[in-house]
Amino acid sequence: MGQQATFHAPHGGADFLGWRKARSGATEIVYDDGVTRRMIWRVAGGSPNELRLSDALRVAVGSVRVVPTLYDELKKRAIAIERVAG
User: Fold this and answer.
1) Among 45, 43, 44, which Cα is nearest to 18's?
2) Which site from 9, 14, 15, 17 is most exposed, i.e. has the minimal number of CB atoms within 10 Å?
3) How many angstroms separate the Cα of 85 from the Cα of each of 10, 62, 73?
4) What is the C-alpha separation between 6 and 58, in angstroms, rounded?
5) Mean pLDDT of residues grouped by 10 in the chain (86 residues)?
């Protein structure tokens, strides 16, 4: 199946963020709000630094507005993404 790292909202929300390696070898980021939204992005440009990616997800899931914070954190770390689903 591959590597995976997951994070859940610490403030009692159902928000979930995780990254995984797809069968194709691409790294994907998954967001689920626990109710209606599920979004998937593919990390562009090959294999990202897993530590930097995990740090960005950890910061984002700890905020109240997870998706906008995720975009900001990925931009700070120069990690480019492209939306796959959602």
Assistant:
1) 43
2) 14
3) 25, 23, 20
4) 9
5) 63 80 87 87 82 89 90 93 84
22: nearest Cα among 51, 6, 1: 1
CA 36 to chain centre: 17
Alpha-carbon distance of 40 to 55, in angstroms, equals 18
pLDDT at 6: 73
Whole-angstrom Cα distance, residue 28 to residue 65? Answer: 20
Cα–Cα distance for residue pair 4/68, rounded to 1 Å: 22
For residues 56 and 27, is the Cβ–Cβ distance under 8 A? no
